[in-house]
Amino acid sequence: MTDVSCIADTTSERTSRRLRLTAITLYGLALIVMLAVFAWLLADQYRRELQAADEHNSTRADLVAQWVSTTFTLSDQALVGVGQLLEPPLDAALAAPYRLEDALKARRDKLPLVDELAVLDTRGRVKASSSSYHPPGFDLSRMTYFQAFTASPALEQHISPLYWSAFTRDYYIAYTRRLRNANGDFAGLVTARLAPRVFDDSLAQLSMRPGETIALVDEDQQLLARRPGVDDADALQTLSDSDRLDAFFAGAALTASMRLTSPLDGVERLYWLQKLPGLPYTVIVGDRMDTVLDGWPQRLWALLLIAAAGALLGAWGLRHYLNRLRLSQQLVDRIDERETARSQAQMREARLEALVRSIQDMIFVFDENGCFIYLHAVNKQWLLRDKEAVLGCHYVDVLPPRVSHQFAEVFERVKREGSAEEFCYTLWLDQHQRFFHAIVSPLAARDGHFSGVLAAVRDVTQSRINEAELRIAATAFHTHLGMMITDARGCILKVNATFSRITGYTEDEVLGQNPRMLSSGRHDAAFYKTLWGSVARTGSWEGEIWNRRKCGEVYPEWLTLSAVRGDSGELTHYVATLSDITERKAAEREIQQLAFYDPLTGLANRRLFLDRVGDALKTYRRSASHGALLFIDLDNFKQVNDTLGHYAGDQLLQRMASELSRELRDTDTLARLGGDEFAVLVHQLDDNLERAAEQAEQVAHKLLAAISRPMVLESGPVMITGSIGIALLSSAEESVDACLQQADMALFQAKADGRNTLAFFDPRMQAELVARACLETDLYRALPNGEWRLFYQPQVDGNGALTGVEALLRWAHAERGMVSPGEFIPLLESTRMINDVGAWVLETACEQLVAWQDNPHTAAWDIAVNISPVQFYADDFVPRVKAILARTGAPIARLKLEVTETLFVGAKDDARHKMQHLKHLGIRFSLDDFGTGYSSLAYLAYLPLDQLKIDQSFVRELPESAANGAIVESTIALAQSLGLAVIAEGVETDAQRQWLAARHCRAFQGYLFGRPLPVAELEAQWVKAVD
After folding, report:
1. Is 949 left (phi over 0), alpha (psi -120 to 50) or beta?
2. Is residue 211 helix, strand or coil?
């Protein structure tokens, strides 16, 4: 306890020192923050006062700059006036100096700012002057302003630096302009001399506060004027030797603010410097620093006094706090002394409490009246109420009635007999039933009289559960699973009825025997070594095993074998559970048959076939051998189904599977992939690729012969042929999908070659397929990337005049350049992209019609747009056309849609309905490629056509081909009889045009009149031709 007390004292002192240090630190930080804030306030006020002074000085400088600029503006006007005086003519005026002097004096008298006006000739000699000290002929060629003009012929005016006049004993500025004669050559100078006192007089008009200065200096920092004024002897000295001032005059900045000591009066001022635009002068306005900062020292002292007062007040508060802290520490020390004594008593009680808490049972102590005077429970949930609520209460008020009645009887017997009693009871706690066992012992006072009882209560719920589980385990032993228990040596100790039903042995027949009596002989020693090794290592083994029944039948069973060990880990028993899985194995075989074999033919299905192809590829890569993959498709099998029925078709497939199997080796795999498609995997071909191909071809011919043999079905004999595609398998790193694709492409080629034949895979097939796929991918990007172009081919009348154009789609590929329409048009139609691209073509053509209708040369031109059958039969074709016409506002009468004969094969009524709908809008229709397809005279009268186009295949051989000539003449006559216009395309020679014109064809299109061109080139060619 002494050690504990010392530790507590040390901790208390350490805490007290920490609090004192914290208080002093906070005071110091607060003092620093206060000083920092005051310093910032002073600095901000200092900056604001300097800024206000700069604004005042800037305003003054603007005013002075305006005055100086006005002075030089008046002087410039005077010089201009003198120049104008000398103009009529200039040489004659200069020849009469006395007249010029009078004029100059008159001008000077009107300008009080100008001290002298003078005119100099080209040599710098005075021709005339308004002052007497510069008589005519006086040489001023050495003056800097004259030398400036002679040095720079392009100089028109000049302001000289401040110079000293020996005649007047004063400083001046010369403002000079160039004179030119009638030819524009140098004819002399006109100069105005200004005295700096002019600026002094202007500055004198300003009201100034004490200490303020305003000065005007030139580029060399020479003082021209200043207020307050200075002695003349100081006029030539520079303002200061400050580097900042020199940098300002040398730099490009127009204004600056700086703090300098004046060299004229030795006073420190805040200066504002401002250069005059267009003039070599700078205005400098200064204000004394003591005036600018007037009042700032007082604020400094005021803030310092406030800071000092705050510091003193804080020091007083800190001292007061430290005193209270010392008194508090003394009080704590006294309290600690008292607590030490109390702690010693509590520790003794705690040791006793710890002893009681180490008891896992519940302890209840009752007085002689049955009231609770003490209780202990490790698990508080076992108590029906809080401990504080129970103490002092009678057990009748706490325990449930049934338990209270039991305890009352035990309490009375213990009180009466003076010996311990036991009883059991149950309670429902948290909706769970708990079982308890209680031992009630009597308590005696010092005089030996009864003073109460002590009840030790134990929770026996888990024990009850264990007992129940043992009963359940005994019951479970007789379940549907066979069970066998052996000792550590493997002798059978017990089996259940299910074991007897599975094996056929009764319990009496197997007791004391070894389970080896059930062995079927199918498993070798290695199998049993693995089994017992797993039991030894993990304590159990589970798996499938074949055993023999008493009747000798071998059957599969699922066995679970577990080792049972005692408390010290020694092996005591083996427990085996077994079940007969004969029916399950049969079901698995059936499932496997359904999963990997075709239910109709019994052949391998696609899944099993792909697995075997993958295994074969792995073998070929290791051994560098070859195999072959054959895809078989029955030609016209659909006709058998359609004519004889699906039952006959199924019979044919079954017979075909049987016939094909006879032609193959056992090592080969025949599969039905679906429908009438079969596949063969041929193994063990020659290592030489060419010989392997020959062997694969021989197998294929045998299969073709088997397919073509007549087959007798229930419905009658049937003959059928097949097509076979062959892909050779080698050691190349190819995937299963790639091999299947190669065989499929070969089959496609065989069917294209006329069926009832075979074809080998050619890499060119794959190259064409890849190229087609790449082209299709690029097609999807062509419209968003703006790669489509419209070219226009002229259509002319019999006189060669352009009547319209045909819009032809061109693809400007980003990498391949222009792509032939023969490559991309079929892809557009097969991928249905023709709908969007065709809509773009139509909208672009309509926009072009709108652009042409404002030009009289092109307003009558028609545009013919080709419409694909895929595009035409789209559900939204008519609404799309109407939307495009509404959106573009194109002249509908100038639009013509070209359709082909294939459009009308099939749904002629639908085609007629759509054409009539568009016809009502004003759109015309032209039948393209007439005579090349499904030509029928019926739909010419049935459909609302306006024009027939003679295909270029007929025109190309005119007039030499009599057959083509007859066809063309018939077409023209037919069109005229039906009231349809005719246009011939592909006209390339004048002989063809004349031949067609002689037979009343009045419209032509072809290279004779022009190739398809972009719209700009078309307009440039044909509009120019019209002009």
Report:
1. beta
2. coil
Q: What tokens appear for 763 in the block? A: 């890499």
pLDDT of amino acid 767? 64
Nearest CA to 847 out of 800, 793, 807 is that of: 807
Paired with 726 in beta bridges are 630, 760
CB 808 within 8 A of CB 864: no
Overall average pLDDT of the 830-842 stretch: 90
Residue 904's closest CA among 874, 861, 855, 943?
943
* Residue 204 CB coordination number (10 Å): 13
**DSSP 3-state helix, strand, coil percentages of the chain (rounded to 5)?**
50, 25, 25
815-830: average pLDDT: 85
> Cα 497 vs. chain centroid, distance in angstroms?
69
pLDDT computed for residue 235 by the predictor? 44
Instruction: Specify the higher pLDDT residue, 995 or 230.
Output: 995
Lowest mean pLDDT among 12-16, 302-306, 775-779, 788-792: 12-16
Query: Other C-beta atoms within 10 Å of 44: how many?
Result: 10
What 3-state class would DSSP assign to 611?
Answer: helix
- pLDDT for the residue numbered 981: 93
For residue range 338-364, what is the model confidence (pLDDT) as tens digits? 777 677 767 766 766 666 666 667 888
> Which whole number is the average pLDDT over 72-86?
68
Token representation of residue 561: 């074998």
d(C-alpha 636, C-alpha 675), whole Å:
12
CB 836 within 8 A of CB 880: no
| pLDDT given at position 475 | 57
Q: Nearest 5°: phi and psi at 219?
A: -70, -25
Residues 6+ apart with CB under 8 A from 189: 119, 120, 145, 146, 149, 176, 177, 178, 179
Range 882-885 contact pairs with CB under 8 angstroms and sequence separation of 24 or more: 882/921, 884/839, 884/842, 884/843, 884/846, 885/846, 885/921
What is the Cα–Cα distance from 527 to 529, expressed in whole angstroms?
A: 5
Say if residues 458 and 437 touch (Cβ distance below 8 Å).
Answer: yes
pLDDT of residue 864: 96
Which domains are assigned to the chain? 19-85+197-327 (3.30.450.20), 91-195 (3.30.450.20), 359-465 (3.30.450.20), 489-586 (3.30.450.20), 597-761 (3.30.70.270), 791-806+837-1026 (3.20.20.450)
Name the residue with higher pLDDT: 108 or 740: 740
Cβ–Cβ contacts within 10 Å for residue 465, how many?
A: 11
DSSP summary character for residue 228: S
Strands 116-120 and 126-129: antiparallel
* Highest mean pLDDT, choosing among 509-523, 564-578, 839-853: 839-853
State the chain's maximal CA–CA distance in angstroms: 168
* Rg from Cα positions in the chain: 61
Say what the pLDDT of residue 641 is: 81
Residues 6 or more apart from 480 whose CB is under 8 A from it?
498, 579
The answer, yes or no, to whether residue 54 has pLDDT greater than 90, is no
Please determine, for residue 387, whether its predicted confidence score (pLDDT) is greater than 80.
no
- For residue 228, whether the previous peptide bond is cis, meaning omega lies within 30 degrees of 0, is yes
pLDDT above 70 covers a percentage of the chain that reads 86
C-alpha–C-alpha distance, residues 53 and 212, integer Å: 11
Cis bond before residue 891 (omega within 30° of 0): no
